[in-house]
Amino acid sequence: MSKRVGHSYSSSEPILLQSVGGSSKASRFYDEDAVRVSQKIDEELKREWTRIKDAQRKQVKVMLLGQAESGKSTLQKQFQLYYAHQTLEHGRPLWRPVVYFNIIKAVRMILDELDYELANIGSDDSTEGQAVAHALAPLGDVSGEISHLREKLVALISMEDSLASELNGGISVTGGRTGMYVRAGWQALVTPLSPNRSRAVPATGGPPPAVAHVTNLASRTLNASQDEVDELWKHPAVRILLNNRRIRLDESASFFLESVKRISQPDYLPTTADLLNVRLQTLGVAEHSFDVELCGSRYNWLMYDVGGARHAWVPYFDDGTLFHSYLEEDARTNRVDDSLQLFTAICSNKLLKNSHLVLLLNKIDLLKKKLDAGSKVRKYITSYGDRPNTFADVSEYFRAHFVQVHRRNDIGRRALYAHFTSMLDIRATQAIIVNVGEAIIRSHIARTGLA
Ligand SMILES: Nc1nc2c(ncn2[C@@H]2O[C@H](COP(=O)(O)OP(=O)(O)OP(=O)(O)O)[C@@H](O)[C@H]2O)c(=O)[nH]1
Ligand SMILES: [Mg+2]
């Protein structure tokens, strides 16, 4: 908002402009000087109003939509890394407790699943169950070793709830201890926010005592239990159960467990790779503001990171299409089908009719890894049939499905920009950010006629 002495107005106050501009009747009672002053104020106000309108037209709103865990917040962090590196630097320490939480949750999940599998080792007579029992047999009875490790890790695991509750700001979400959830502006719990939207400013007084206390306690406890965490992670029974998909962890768990020695150092500060790998579910909508220089002009990008939990989207989709495709708990629908349904809802949504569409098919690194390990797509998507299981064929197959959905459902007759991405790859993602940004700005200019 711009300010002049004695006047204060903003783009949301056009009425003020009209009332000042419409003062000519009253001016009859003033002398010539007063009229000149009044006209000058009018002109200034008009100029200011035009400037505000221009600034508004240079604002680009970007909404990140997609399934839970599809990488929306990671893309937002990549934007921050590219366009607002300083804010990412300031925010680095805030992620410490979240990284600790990711490790502790993984440790707890490994122990829980291990206990279950070891207790049921003989009772699963499926082919897969027998294969696991066969692989575990040479290790002998490991339950004693595992209980010993569990005892040593009790103090660490007990930190999971207190970390989650401090960072959730006391919010408890139904569904149990499946994760840590944060609402928009969660950083405010640790660092005060600047008035300029969600941008964190450097902490002056430090984090509130409760968060600082829990974070430091988690750090000390992890430091004291790092050998046991490492031992558990490398335990042959854990390796076997992971390889046989009997233990399923968050995708980034292995990244953090491999790095436990580094992370448990008392002076640990999250690296950029840590920030991109860390998992923190977005609850609701987080707004981020970036100043972006593109095609020779400055734009303000307002980025809305919409949590993948569908109930958060309902206010944005008034025709209910999306609400009906709420599939979060429906395990029978695979992620690709779910994603296609979601994309159908986005393409056909009237409220989004005038938006540009950019489709990012993310996590290609994981797809490549799975294909390299011999996974067959047909096992998950029967219609894939006997097509070759190479990245080129599989990615083209997926792309074609999304292009078809777009062709059939797009109510805005829009161009579709589609990219394959791996959001953990900084260089590749940043090339895409620039590429997509320029394409959006070019269409923006074409539409508004404003460079
Ligand atoms: N391997 C790999 N992991 C990724 C990629 N993109 C994101 N991730 C990881 O996937 C997890 C989920 O990413 P998020 O960015 O939190 O997902 P989100 O879409 O914001 O999820 P919600 O907030 O629940 O809607 C994080 O641990 C990321 O590090 C990718 O391209 N490859
Ligand atoms: Mg998110």
From TrEMBL:
Pfam families: G-alpha
Residues annotated for Mg(2+) binding in this entry: T282
Protein name (record): Guanine nucleotide binding protein, alpha subunit
Top-level taxonomic group: Eukaryota
Keyword GTP-binding: yes
Organism field: Boletus reticuloceps
A molecular function GO annotation: GTPase activity
Biological processes annotated in GO: adenylate cyclase-modulating G protein-coupled receptor signaling pathway
Organism taxonomic ancestry: Eukaryota, Fungi, Dikarya, Basidiomycota, Agaricomycotina
Keywords for the protein's UniProt record, in alphabetical order: GTP-binding, Magnesium, Metal-binding, Nucleotide-binding, Transducer
Residue sites binding GTP per the record: L276, N277, V278, R279, L280, Q281, T282, N362, K363, I364, D365
Gene Ontology cellular component annotations, sorted alphabetically: cytoplasm; heterotrimeric G-protein complex
